[in-house]
TrEMBL record:
It catalyses: a 1,2-diacyl-sn-glycero-3-phospho-(1D-myo-inositol-3-phosphate) + H2O = a 1,2-diacyl-sn-glycero-3-phospho-(1D-myo-inositol) + phosphate; a 1,2-diacyl-sn-glycero-3-phospho-(1D-myo-inositol 4-phosphate) + H2O = a 1,2-diacyl-sn-glycero-3-phospho-(1D-myo-inositol) + phosphate. PROSITE patterns: SAC. This is Phosphatidylinositol-3-phosphatase SAC1. It comes from Macrostomum lignano. InterPro entries: SAC_dom. GO terms for biological process: phosphatidylinositol dephosphorylation.
Length: 633
């Protein structure tokens, strides 16, 4: 168990971190960076004399910048809910504290760069959606945690014995490192596990729902992978190691009193747990879609088929075997026409290769052209997707754990859903699939008629006439729409599109207007701000390590076109405005004047969009690329 509330004493030479409910004190030497534990209260008292304490709620880790190491702390938290007796928390505020008291040892350029690095880290820490728990592993699904416990003890051990062994293992050692966003920052704190707080990024929601005179807990947990993490247009597809951009594991959990089912003699305090896991991730090919001022840049798919195949196999080998998700049911929501056509065709071709089907005999590919099928607000046609995947539910199953923690059922495969962003269309589809899984779980508890058979009709007569169904329906809608907004905000910079369908069960005019607004904001952020956001993520995750003596990554100048073409455009518009306001002496001269400046304005606009890649905000740190490199992707 990790210390929950700590007092931080920031002395000139040391950081002294003292838990409110423990005897040991962590001391960090600000000059050497050495860390040590002491239980000598008198020595600690001498160190902190005259230093006021600051209450903090966890140590995020240690990050190396140009001026030296920096300590990341959790300043404020918010309670999200309780699950299986464990409190789950959200980071409300975090900060970064330098070991070094000044930057006088740096050159002027290095000191300026160090300040930019600090701004980048704080930018990333301000991103919503960091969660943690002091007592349970939030990075693992229930099935993964159960498997980890089984692998940690003798196969003859009882569930209680396995749980005891796992509980004795520090959280930072048993966490799934894919989803621990401060994994690299915690390296120096791992020797002090009660101070090392694993943090996941994504979404966590826990709601208590009235159910048959009792209460059940509904939880939705989305875990974003730290591998190939980033923002919308700068992280797409797979890298050569098979890691997918915007990979998210989403787990829906239902905690039900054992007496809520058909067994009236069950212990009323015992809880049966149900879990259903889905994943999403960028189209598992090597491709890119860098911003260039166009509303939707055309994706560029790598033509190196050997690299494509190797990355594809590495990705699904990791998913199927290493991560033990089992067989994959790929639900591809890409458009079969337009700018997504080539990407969709290459994806379909890869999944149908004999070499792929031989390696992954349980891999199933289902293409559902979301925009074509649901065009003209025909959202009821999503039922077609559920009909096509109904046989997969039969073989997939779900995870169920008895009150003592022993597994009763196992989920054998997962839905891997993608659209081009893995946000809006993906969230709608995953919500429907999760709702269908929940209906099956409730049916196995003896409540087959609680939800309508058609999961796209969430405003059904059953849910309207059944208070239990209505309460649970409302919770599901809100949880999945909030999940959509938070994941979209982290990756694309705005709330999700199409969230009105998830929230209300139907498309509305207000929802369409909201989507139009968010689309405009996305365009602006993705073109003129996301390079900064990508740098912030790379720096926080440790993908980029600043080094003294290197050339400043922020000193790169802009091309002449970046200032000349907007200047011509602005000056031309000014001259046209003046010409329209001032009365002309000769109409022929006025026509030539207007024609000249109209031509200048049109040419300037054409030049800006033709050289659009030079005008967007590009990453300066971990993703250095050139137009020559991109042209070969």
């Amino acid at each position: 168990m990790i210390y929950e509330v700590l007092s931080l004493f920031n002395t000139p030479d040391k950081f002294v971190i003292q838990p409110h409910n423990g005897l040991e004190t962590l001391i960090i030497d600000r000059q050497t960076g050495d860390m040590s534990i002491t239980m000598d209260s008198s020595a600690v008292s001498r160190l902190i004399v005259g230093t006021p304490p600051t209450t903090i709620y966890g140590l995020w880790g240690v990050l190396q910048l140009l001026s030296g190491p920096h300590l990341l702390i959790v300043q404020a938290r918010r309670h999200v809910g309780n699950l299986r007796g464990h409190s789950l928390w959200r980071v409300e505020s975090a900060d970064i504290l330098p070991y070094c008291r000044s930057s006088l040892h740096l050159t002027e350029t290095a000191a300026a760069d160090n300040e930019i690095y600090l701004q980048l880290v704080r930018e990333s820490l301000r991103t919503p959606g960091y969660y943690f728990s002091y007592t349970t592993d939030l990075s693992r699904s229930l099935q993964s945690a159960c498997r980890y416990a089984a692998e940690s003890v003798d196969y003859m051990a009882t569930p209680a014995a396995a749980a005891a062994v796992v509980d004795a293992t520090p959280l930072c050692d048993r966490a799934d490192d894919r989803f621990v966003w401060n994994y690299n920052s915690l390296i120096k704190l791992r020797r002090f596990p009660r101070f090392a707080l694993p943090v996941v990024h994504g979404f966590v929601c826990v709601r208590t729902v009235p159910f048959k005179g009792r209460t059940i807990d509904y939880a939705l947990i989305s875990r974003r992978s730290r591998h190939r993490a980033g923002v919308r247009y700068y992280t797409r597809g797979l890298d050569e190691d098979g890691y997918a951009a915007n990979f998210v594991e989403t787990e829906q959990i239902l905690s039900v009193p054992s007496s809520a089912g058909t067994n009236p003699t069950a212990n009323p305090n015992a809880q049966t747990l149900f879990s259903f896991v889905q994943t999403r991730g960028s189209v598992p090919l090597i491709w890119s879609q860098y911003p260039n001022l166009l509303y939707k840049p055309a994706p560029t798919v790598s033509q190196d088929w050997d690299k494509q195949f190797d990355a594809f196999v590495a990705h699904f080998s990791d998913q199927v075997f290493t991560r033990c998700y089992g067989n994959q049911v790929i639900v591809n929501l890409l458009d079969a026409v337009g700018k997504e056509r080539e990407l969709c065709a290459q994806f379909s071709r890869m999944c149908s290769l004999t070499e792929v089907t031989r390696r992954f005999d349980g891999l199933r590919y289902e293409h559902f052209d979301f925009h074509r099928e649901c065009s003209r607000l025909r959202w009821d046609r999503l039922s077609l997707l559920l009909e096509r995947t109904e046989p997969d539910f039969d073989s997939m199953g779900y995870f169920q754990a008895a009150p003592d923690g022993s597994p009763q059922r196992t989920q054998h495969s997962v839905f891997r859903v993608n659209c081009i962003d893995c946000l809006d269309r993906t969230n709608v589809a995953q919500c429907l699939l999760a709702r269908r899984a929940l209906a099956r779980q409730l049916a196995d508890l003896g409540y087959a008629a609680l939800f309508a058979n058609n999961a796209t009709s969430s405003n059904s007569s059953e849910s309207k006439t059944n208070p239990d169904a209505e309460s649970l329906e409302s919770v599901i809608k809100l949880a999945w729409s909030d999940n959509a907004d938070e994941l979209s905000l982290q990756y694309a910079g705005t709330g999700a599109l199409k969230a009105d369908f998830t929230r209300t069960g139907r498309r509305t005019k207000f929802g369409a207007l909201r989507d139009a607004y968010f689309s405009a904001v996305r365009y602006a952020r993705n073109n003129f701000y996301d390079g900064w956001r990508q740098d912030a993520i790379d720096l926080l995750l440790g993908n980029y390590l600043p080094e003294r003596g290197e050339l400043s990554p922020f000193a790169q100048g802009r091309d002449w076109k970046v200032w000349l073409l907007p200047s011509v455009l602005l000056f031309g518009l000014t001259m046209l405005t003046m010409g329209a306001l001032l009365p002309p002496e000769h109409w022929s001269e006025q026509m030539l004047f207007s024609l000249f400046w109209c031509t200048s304005v049109v040419l300037a606009i054409f030049g800006i969009f033709y050289y659009g890649e030079d005008f967007v905000d590009r990453p300066r740190l971990g993703q250095k690329f050139s137009r020559q490199k991109r042209s070969t992707v």
